[in-house]
Amino acid sequence: MNCLEFHRQKLADPPRLSAEARAHAQACASCAAFERSVDESDQRLEEALASPVPNGLADRIILRSRTKNRAWRAWTLAASVVLAVAAGLSFVREPKNAADQYARLAIEHVMMEPESLTTVRNADPPALRTIVQDFGGTLKALPGTIRYIRLCPVEDGTGWHIVFETPEGLATLILVPEKPLRATQSASAGGWNAMARPAGRGYYAIVTASAAATSRFERTLEERIDWNRRERS
Amino acid sequence: MRISHHRENFEQTVRAYSADLYRYAHWLCRDRHLAEDIVQEAFARAWKAWSELRDLEQAKSWLIAIVRNEYARSFSRNRMQTQEIDEADLPALPSFEQGLETSQLVALLPETYREPLLLQVLGGFSCAEIAAMLGTSEGAVMTRLTRARQALRQQFSDAGKRRSAR
After folding, report:
1. What is the structure's pLDDT at B99?
2. B78 with B101, same domain?
3. Which pLDDT band holds residue A144 (cuts at 50, 70, 90)?
4. Residue B103 in contact with partner chain A when CB distance is under 8 A
5. More confident call, B74 vs A126
6. Residue A25 has what pLDDT?
7. Residues B59 and B21 in one domain
8. Residue among B40, B95, B149 whose CB faces A38 most closely
């Protein structure tokens, strides 16, 4: 076994080194250091690949396999609602405290869609103008550079998921129509901060990495979008 | 009695592997809703054919093959909906997204490199098992995995230098 062969084995299948390769690493300081470095980058890789798994996935699969009629989708949807309400979503949702429920739902949404922060998709200002208008607001100026726009499933319907590049970093705006919200909500979970506030035809939620960034983005949003709150009240 | 034994094995398999299969599907399609549909369909097909599974030890690789097949089917159904990613347009990542940097770098790998890497890291399969799944030689899988890790390590190093320079 030489160093080149060791490198080849280690890069191809890090956890399954041959006895010969393991013996080589014990005798060769350079290859031992290489081994540590590959293990570190593989650890980082493993963490990155561990996408969050939807809550209740296994239960929905099992329920579907037990349901013989074609209406499985309705059953699984009902089951997922029951599961979400009954079990809560681990650390994101706190069923005992409903006062910040919609802010927490927004954090959960961002965590379940990490590609929204790494992907440029439909970054189109005229589309945003139309979306805001349909939501009951008027876009006076962009609150940041648009990176991502997508219509997503949210509780009871669909909502717009929009990501902006701002001087403080990325800010996610989620517009949820037809959902009454009486007061502003705030929450922090999993390294994210969120606020939800009544606006337009429903409410909007902002998700950023810190309370300060959320607050700054909210100010910018309120300056640049007229939500026509007076007309509604 | 036989049916309930099958049912029990199936449900244990769902609980053991659905998360890994979801992650694998998510990395193939990069869409969480589609990934769940793919995994749901894959297990529905697996349950229909469950009596054909002779060795439970082979269940995971069998399910991976079904997920790959479902992904191919969904890809052909949803071709018009696939998102366009222009990586050249991506601005520099702000600090709080650094944790997602690795995901982005993995997403940039060519599919021929990315898929064996997913099967090895998420699935825990050996090079020989991956070769059987992908219908290629063990040597070819080893080469792809070596190149994938070399490319990622280079990217990690470059990203680290860029962060230090800011």
Report:
1. 42
2. no
3. very high
4. yes
5. A126
6. 92
7. yes
8. B149
**Residue B82: band (very low, low, confident or very high) from pLDDT cuts 50, 70, 90:** very low
User: B157 with B127, same domain?
Assistant: yes
> What CATH number should be reported for the domain holding residue B144?
1.10.10.10
Q: What percent of chain B has pLDDT over 90?
A: 30
Residue B50 covered by a domain: yes
Give yes or no: residues B66 and B137 share one domain.
no
CB B57 within 8 A of CB B112: no
* Same domain flag for B9 and B48: yes
Residues of A in contact with B15 (CB under 8 A): 58
Number of structural domains in chain B? 2
Verify that B130 and B67 share a domain, yes or no: no
Please indicate, yes or no, if residue B152 is contained in any of the structural domains.
Answer: yes
Q: Do B145 and A118 touch (CB under 8 A)?
A: no
Q: Which domain holds residue B147?
A: 97-166
Give the mean pLDDT of A3-24: 92
pTM of the predicted structure, to 2 decimals: 0.55
Hey, what long-range contacts does B120-123 have (CB within 8 A, 24 or more apart)? B120/A13, B120/B145, B121/A42, B121/A45, B121/A46, B121/A49, B122/A49, B122/B20, B122/B23, B122/B24, B122/B27, B123/B20, B123/B24, B123/B60, B123/B61, B123/B64
The pLDDT assigned to A19 comes to: 92
Q: What pLDDT shows up at residue A68?
A: 54
Q: Is residue B9 part of a domain?
A: yes
In degrees and rounded to multiples of 5, residue A196 shows phi and psi of -125, 135
